[in-house]
Write the structure tokens for this entry.
Amino acid sequence: MSVDRRTALKGVGATLGAAAFARALAPLTEWTETLSADEFLQRHYKELSWDEMRAVLRRHEAKTEREYGARPTIEDVRPTPGVEFGYALNLSICIGCRKCAEACHVENNHDRSTHQSYIRVLEMSKGSLDMERGRADYDHPVPQPDKFYMPVQCQQCGNPPCVKVCPVEATWKEPDGIVVVDYDWCIGCRYCEAACPYHARRFNWRKPEVPAEEINLVQAYLSNRIRPQGVMEKCTFCLHRTRNGRLPACLEACPTGARVFGDLNDPKSEIRWVLENKRVFVLKEDLGTDPRFFYFFDE
């Protein structure tokens, strides 16, 4: 049984103390003031009947139209049985252009004023794999001759530490390997952000600003619908696309073909070929997170 949000809030408050709890919840003030009774009393995603979910989807479509001036189609796209997604990236041919990050920004209806994205592209010195020394704020022409480029996003861990720390079960790992967040259930405590060793979680400090004409109207409940203020969000391998047989937006935007995506359970998939024929590695393997995001260099 999932933890009730009101019970969890009381528990977090008891743990932190009154003053610290008030500071932690300060960014949520505007959000909670506008939360409707239906939204606050909504049951956990895994407990919703189909009729209840349909009502939730229609409510969010109407809310988006009311607040942003465009009406999306929001679906609850479920995993395909037997499929487990994986991603690989060829660091030998990534040129650091950030077109993947830009495509993520547009596809996932990120806040325009902060130019948010689920992808950080790190400029790294050749010969080093210390991502903590990588720079994501470079502003010179790319690629530089003495550098290589490492895009980092959610690693869709097989053993995700972010899931373990969530006090309300607002984040979990789906059968196809994608770690998701229910934005309606998240209380914004940011424990998952602190637990993620890849800095892959994002927090909405304010209501996202997205012009009506720029909204991607093809949306999914657990994916790219516009997230409210005060909740965590993350990459979902564009599940609104990939679970419908399409490729992630970041992959389609890559000009060099550095990105490979597919079903790890399909022996004929390109991702399986990469894993079987290239020397792949994962970030921070010593932590035991078991990522489903792989990196490799051409030899």
